[in-house]
């Protein structure tokens, strides 16, 4: 039996939340990247889904993924999250599981998303709230610099590149660290220079397009963190194409 994780010692268990509804901008691509990078290293990968009305197991998964969605689908999912999944998600986060929310999913990890006089309640795992204010949608290529030493997340420094398309502006509560600083693009609200939010293993970001194919170093960080391994424990892969994808996303963002 091999004793190194990259040789088949662990299985990454992922739960896709509402993959049928919260999946705009190819969120499935994020899960495929996780699956392939595990497979190439001999790490097992299991993905299951939990959608409307379905229960959520707080103990069965290492990573819970919530992708982007239209306002209409977000509303449906928000109601269901509160009714059937909020407690389990809080319990999963409390035991150290990763929860990754992208765009609409990020908004729903916060306290609320207000639009057209209505307030959609989120699960409150991140101390953020989102408001659909008058003004254009925030659309375009984006790059952010992650520097989380102060937040104690052990994520280190790196640049994430992606694409954003959101009407909502997201505001961080006092003491809520962002995921990163905007190098190019709009980020949380188009003016603060901040992007995303992170609290222990709960991560929210507006970057999609999708996120992980353009930033495989971050995918590897997620895999390692989800398996409880140091970030450098995973075997390096031949990432020529992936590096090109990252460089091209950075270039598209003007860097
Ligand atoms: N509906 C949300 C907004 O427009 C999120 C959009 C998305 O997930 N791309 O702000």
Structure commentary:
By secondary structure, this protein is α/β, with parallel strands linked by helices. It has a 6-stranded mixed beta sheet, sandwiched between helices. The protein has a 4-stranded mixed beta sheet with strand order 6-5-7-10. The termini are far apart. The N terminus is likely disordered. Glutamine binds next to helix 2, helix 3 and strand 9.
Name the bound molecules: glutamine
Assign a percent range to the helix content. 25-40%
Shape: globular
Structural class of the secondary structure composition?
alpha/beta
Question: What's the Cα radius of gyration?
Answer: 17 Å
Let me know the largest β-sheet: 6 strands, mixed
Order of helices and strands: EHEEHEHEEEEEEEEEEHH
Query: What is the helix tally?
Result: 5
Strands of the widest sheet, in order across it, are: 2-1-3-4-14-13
User: How far apart, in Å, are the first and last alpha carbons?
Assistant: 45 Å
Notable traits:
255 residues, alpha/beta, 6-stranded mixed beta sheet, 4-stranded mixed beta sheet, 14 strands, 29% strand, globular, binds glutamine
Helices and strands in order:
Blueprint: E1 11-17, H1 27-39, E2 44-50, E3 63-66, H2 71-94, E4 98-102, H3 104-109, E5 112-115, E6 118-121, E7 128-131, E8 138-147, E9 157-166, E10 169-172, E11 180-184, E12 194-195, E13 197-199, E14 202-205, H4 216-226, H5 240-252
Parallel strand pairs: 1-2, 1-3, 3-4, 4-14, 5-7
Antiparallel strand pairs: 5-6, 7-10, 8-9, 8-11, 11-12, 13-14
The chain binds glutamine (GLN).
């Amino acid at each position: 039996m091999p004793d190194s994780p990259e040789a088949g010692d662990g299985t990454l268990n992922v739960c896709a939340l509402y993959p049928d509804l919260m999946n705009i901008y190819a969120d499935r691509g994020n899960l495929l990247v996780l699956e392939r990078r595990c497979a190439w290293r001999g790490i097992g990968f299991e993905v299951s889904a939990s959608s409307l009305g379905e229960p959520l197991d707080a103990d069965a998964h290492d990573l819970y993924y919530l992708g982007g969605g239209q306002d209409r689908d977000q509303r449906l999912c928000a109601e269901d999250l509160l009714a059937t999944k909020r407690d389990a998600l809080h319990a999963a986060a409390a035991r150290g599981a990763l929860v990754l929310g992208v765009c609409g999913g990020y908004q729903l990890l916060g306290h609320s998303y207000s639009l057209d006089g209505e307030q959609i309640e989120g699960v409150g795992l991140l101390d953020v709230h989102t408001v659909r204010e008058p003004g254009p949608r925030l659309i375009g290529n984006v790059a952010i610099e992650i520097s989380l030493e102060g937040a104690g997340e052990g994520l280190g420094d790196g640049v994430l590149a992606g694409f954003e398309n959101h009407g909502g502006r997201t505001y961080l509560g006092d003491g809520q660290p962002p995921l990163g600083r905007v190098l190019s693009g709009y980020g949380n609200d188009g003016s603060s220079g901040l992007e995303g939010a992170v609290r222990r293993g709960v991560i929210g970001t507006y970057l999609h397009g999708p996120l992980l194919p353009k930033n495989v170093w971050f995918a590897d960080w997620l895999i390692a963190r989800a398996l409880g391994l140091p970030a450098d424990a995973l075997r390096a892969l031949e990432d020529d194409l992936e590096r090109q994808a990252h460089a091209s996303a950075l270039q598209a963002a003007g860097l």
